[in-house]
TrEMBL record:
Record keyword Oxidoreductase present: yes
Record Pfam families: 2-Hacid_dh, 2-Hacid_dh_C
Residue ranges annotated for the D-isomer specific 2-hydroxyacid dehydrogenase catalytic domain, each copy included: 42-331
Membership in a protein family: Belongs to the D-isomer specific 2-hydroxyacid dehydrogenase family.
GO molecular function: phosphoglycerate dehydrogenase activity
Species this protein is from: Kaistia dalseonensis
Protein name: D-3-phosphoglycerate dehydrogenase/C-terminal binding protein
UniProt cross-references to PANTHER family, sorted A to Z: C-TERMINAL-BINDING PROTEIN
Length: 345
């Protein structure tokens, strides 16, 4: 069985070959540096399965170039950079790996919140500049008490629920907005439920985004949401950058409606250094001091998480091609004809 991994971040992980070397022949292609790069036809045509390692880069080839591919896996949670309908029309299931970095992302969301609300990064930056003059407990602008504050969650899936549990451990009240959870879900978790984004924004002291990116959620947290926000809101986004309208966030931070933001993801990655908000942050404009934290789409990362992600992606492929067991399929609605059970030769 030949598995083609594209958009891989070198160096290669030899543990995969050790784990599956007797069952799988890997062809691994790094993220191209040339925008015009295309995978050689003989390589794509030889693949039985395809893994896209990147959360943002497209597969540098046409679907028709993968004539033998019977399953596609996004090595990670988000799959908005894969053509679900196109693969489905070919009868090829697209799957993801939703269970590898849940704790890391939830931890990162709370870490961004805490960096702002306890001032850890602001204090450190100030003391680095002048450890005497900046030895001041009031130097960070967003310090607040967590006990009794409201932590709002957009999307109470695996990661959203994990983040909510962590916030509850700080004695925060948890409220969530998720129209796709069945009635009664709030009773099973013990959190308050609201039925509109505006209500969530109006009640929350901190809002953490944990919804997938799709046509419905692109720009979802925008000007209307910020207009409804409780004064002093802190926004955290560890999901996907385009869910938050960065222009609207810039305006809301500038006029004070939003007190602060912790962003692990941006609409353009790497960051657009010329965007007004990014530019204000990198240049140290005084009005934004201590109110914004950016991290480089790293919430998912830990060495253990990477190992889990790589292993689980291959396990999804082997389960389907060898056993006929399809897991984590994200394009069932597009599969035409219905997926047939085909074992690898």
């Amino acid at each position: 069985m030949r598995i083609f991994k594209v958009n891989w971040y070198p160096p290669e992980n030899e543990e995969l070959r050790k784990l599956f070397g007797g069952k799988v022949d890997f062809d691994i292609d790094p993220i191209p540096t040339d925008p015009a790069y295309r995978i050689a036809r003989e390589r794509s045509a030889a693949a039985d399965a395809l893994i896209n390692c990147s959360a943002t880069h497209l597969v540098p080839a046409d679907l028709d170039d993968f004539e033998r591919v019977r399953i596609v896996v996004r090595e990670g949670v988000g799959y908005d950079n894969l053509d679900l309908a196109g693969w489905g029309a070919r009868g090829v299931p697209v799957c993801n790996v939703p269970d590898y970095g849940t704790t890391e992302v939830a931890d990162h969301a709370l870490a961004l919140m805490l960096s702002l609300t306890r001032g850890t990064s602001t204090y450190g930056e100030g003391l680095k500049r002048d450890p005497v003059a900046n030895w001041r407990f009031a130097a960070a602008p967003l310090i607040r008490r967590h006990k009794g504050a409201t932590f709002g969650v957009i999307g109470l899936g695996r990661i959203g629920l994990a983040a909510a549990r962590r916030a509850a451990a700080f004695d925060m009240k948890v409220v969530f907005y998720d129209p796709y959870l069945p009635n009664g879900a709030e009773l099973s978790v013990g959190y308050d439920r609201v039925h509109s984004l505006a209500d969530l924004m109006a009640q929350s002291d901190v809002v953490s985004v944990h919804t997938p990116l799709n046509d419905e959620t692109r720009g979802f947290v925008g000007a209307a949401a910020f207009a409804a926000a409780k004064p002093g809101l802190i926004l955290v986004n560890t999901a996907r950058g385009p869910i938050v309208d960065l222009d609207a966030l810039h305006a809301a931070l500038r006029d004070g409606r939003v007190a602060g933001a912790g962003l692990d993801v941006l609409p353009q990655e790497p960051a657009d250094k010329d965007h007004p908000l990014v530019k204000a942050w990198t240049s140290g404009e005084p009005w934004l001091a201590g109110r914004l934290i950016l991290t480089p789409h790293a919430a998912f990362y830990s060495p253990d998480a990477i190992k889990d992600m790589q292993r689980k992606a291959v396990e999804v492929i082997l389960a389907y091609l060898n056993e006929g067991r399809l897991t984590n399929c994200v394009n069932r609605e597009f599969l035409k004809p219905a997926v047939s059970i085909r074992k690898a030769s």
